[in-house]
Amino acid sequence: YRDYKEYFGTVAKEAIQKCPSFYCDKGTNVELRAVAFIRGRRRIDADNLLKSAMDSMNSIIWHDDSQVVKA
Questions:
Q1: Which tens digit of pLDDT belongs to each residue from 14-38?
Q2: Fewest Cβ atoms closer than 10 Å to its Cβ: which of 4, 9, 21, 64?
Q3: 3-state class (DSSP) for residue 58
């Protein structure tokens, strides 16, 4: 979980630096679409993967992940 969260946070910070208009103010509803490519035969809990991505974007892409109304 922590490795994914750190990775997603780094990617989100790079994206927001390139395009500050990506930030969604508090109260803005957000729809999140995600695709994951997993190497090998490891089993990964999709819910935990999505949660780590959403948590890592708090205060970077959006105010809080509670703004995500559709994922």
A1: 988 998 888 888 889 999 888 888 8
A2: 21
A3: strand
Within 13 Å, how many C-alpha atoms sit on residue 64's CB side?
A: 3
Under 8 Å between Cβ of 23 and 62: yes
Contact 22, 15 (CB under 8 A): yes
In this prediction the pTM is 0.73
**Residue written as tokens 């105010």?**
63
Crossing angle for the helix pair 46-56 and 2-18, nearest 10 degrees? 40
pLDDT tens digits along 33-60: 888 888 888 788 888 888 888 999 999 9
**Tokens 């109260």, residue located:** 27
